[in-house]
Amino acid sequence: MYQKQIFFTRIISYLTSAVCLCTVSLPLVAQAKPAVTTSQTPKKPFKPPRRTPPKPGTTVPMGSRDGCILGNKSLTALIPVTPERLALTISSRPTFFFYIPRTNAKNADFSLQDDKGKVVYKTTLKLPQTSGAIALPIPNVATSPELQVDKSYQWTFSLVCNPQSRADDKYVQGFIQRVNRPDLVTKVEKTPLKQRPSVYAEAGIWHEMLTSLAALRRANPNDAALTAEWKSFLESVGLKNVAQEPLVQL
Questions:
Q1: N or C: which end of the chain has fewer CB within 10 A?
Q2: By C-alpha distance, which of 177, 182, 185, 246 is closest to 207?
Q3: CATH class of 76-242
Q4: Distance CA 2, CA 39 (A)
């Protein structure tokens, strides 16, 4: 009888020690796993969809620096830097973005050609007095064209450096293609404004991604998160040199 009491006493003592050890160890295990917050999750970079170049062998002269362009930055089209120089849109009248460096030029020309080489839209604009990124929308008027679905268009943006000799123009060129994505339109309509750029980015739609993000930045000029998002998207497509430049009005 005495031996049984000793046996049960030892069992109870062992179980009590085990409970104490578990009680001490649990907080240590919890501390070993840091909490993950949404702000620590990096945004996915924009990945341009791979497509066949609209016109094989097309060269894209860049706005080199000389007496027309001042400072150390060049005229730059805000589109992904890929061999195709092609960006997608879902809009019939999209908005284009360009970085305008410090320049002596007062005006710039923009033209849009269809896949037959016919100029379907052309405009001249007065340049801002300061350098920065500008937005150039195709106006929603009867005289401007609606881009056709699945057709590629070539655009040219030129700084008029010498009105007497257009051979001195500094220009950039690229392509745009409109795609039909009714599913994306429906999804965007149900998405809060601040999340729409990311939705467009995930779908590979560059023009609406940049347009929606630019609109948010203009409406919230002191929002550091929007500025950082703009910078992140531009850097992800090879535009690091102009990613931190401000948006300026025409």
A1: N
A2: 177
A3: mainly beta
A4: 64
The backbone torsions φ and ψ at residue 98, rounded to the nearest 5 degrees and listed phi first, read -140, 145
Over the Cα atoms of the chain, what is R_g? 29
DSSP E strands in the chain: the ranges are 76-77, 86-89, 95-100, 107-113, 119-126, 132-137, 152-159, 170-178
**Token code pair at residue 25:** 């160890």
For the cut 80, the answer to whether the pLDDT of residue 89 exceeds it is yes
- Per residue in 18-56, pLDDT (tens digit) is 444 444 343 433 444 444 333 333 466 787 766 665 554
The closest alpha carbon to 75, from 102, 113, 43, belongs to 102
Distance in angstroms between the alpha carbons of the first and the last residue of the chain: 100
E runs forming strands in 160-235? 170-178
DSSP character at residue 100: E
Identity at 169, one-letter amino acid code: D
User: How many DSSP H helices and E strands does the chain contain?
Assistant: 5, 8
User: What residues have CB less than 8 Å from 78, skipping those under 6 apart?
Assistant: 97, 98, 99, 133, 210, 234, 239, 242
Separation between Cα atoms, residue 194 and residue 114, nearest integer Å = 33
Q: What is the per-residue DSSP string for 63-76?
A: B--SSSB-TT--BE
Q: Is 164 exposed, middle or buried (0-12, 13-18, 19+ CB in 10 A)?
A: exposed
Domain extents for the chain?
A: 76-242
Residues 93-107: pLDDT tens digits? 999 999 999 999 999
Checking DSSP bridges between strand 76-77 and strand 107-113, what pairing results, if any? unpaired
Residue carrying the six token digits 């001490």:
24
